[in-house]
Amino acid sequence: MTANDWTVICDKPHDIRLIVADMDGTLLDGDSNIPDGFWPLLDELHAKGVEFVPASGRQLATLRSMFADRVDGAMSYIAENGNVVVADDNVIDVHGVSWDITRTLIDLVDAAVASGSHDIGLVVCGLNTAYIQRQDRPFVEECSKYYKALRIVDDLHEVLETEDETVLKLAIFDFGDAQGMAANLLGDVERTHQVVVSGAHWVDIMNPGTDKRQGVVALQRHLGVTPAQTAVFGDYLNDLQMLDAGEWSFAMANAHPDLKRAARYIAPANTEHGVLQVVRRLV
Question: For an engineered disulfide with 267, which of 47, 51, 190, 250 has Cβ 3.0 to 4.6 Å away?
């Protein structure tokens, strides 16, 4: 597919009922903030009966902290790359990985760090909180950006003894090249699980078939919205499947080349508030 300039679709009104946008590199600006102009636009969308949904690899607690104080009423979210779906502040869909793969990844990352082959750290992403054992400040600060509910433990194997915790996904942060690390280290894991490069330094390991697209479909079913009434925005590889869930699919100008090839339209870059520009014209 060859993506078109987004302005070609804005000459006539469209029946958009659902707008789903990735966060980092998409809705967020160059300083990783929600643009000030988003809040009055969100009010306009709600007044018109249009649902706006953040879809992110970020934790649900993190997404709620970014929106709850500025939003009057309930919100919907797709968190943890589709492993948690929330409609009107109620969880409607949860997916997780087994303790076996969790144990495998803990041991794999520990071995890679011990050998010095990779400068990486593992986040065990639980439904209640996220867990890490690496405690150096640069790693903790990176994790804190995306996981508001974060607990440091001496050994991640302790999480496996927590009977009331559901492990949603496993996230690896690489201070170098995440895509290269995944190719080098996670080949065996990829045979049984989905390995998604979600950023320049992040890789998520999830169950096969779990992705943001599944989250969008769950919301469409819950809200009674069709793909023809859905617009989606993304910039990186963890947004790729999600583009198929909406007929109005947008890759940001700063997006990964694979995303630009898959999207129907190219939106301005996140640093130019591209989501806001398109939504104002589209709805």
Answer: 250
Please say if the pLDDT value at position 251 is more than 80.
yes
Name the pairing type of β-strands 265-267 and 4-5: parallel
If pLDDT is split at 50, 70 and 90, which confidence band does 1 have? very low
Q: Cα Rg for the chain, rounded, in angstroms?
A: 19
- SS3 string, the chain, reads CCCEEHHHHCCCCCCCCEEEECHHHHHCCCCCCCCCCHHHHHHHHHHCCCEEEEECCCCHHHHHHHHHHHCCCCCCEEEHHHCEEEECCEEEEECCCCHHHHHHHHHHHHHHHHHCCCCEEEEEEECCCEEECCCCHHHHHHHHHHCCCEEECCCHHHHHHCCCCCEEEEEEEECCCHHHHHHHHCHHHHCCCEEEECCCCEEEEECCCCCHHHHHHHHHHHHCCCHHHEEEEECCHHHCHHHHHCCEEEEECCCCHHHHHHCCEEECCHHHCHHHHHHHHHC
pTM, whole model, 2 decimals? 0.85
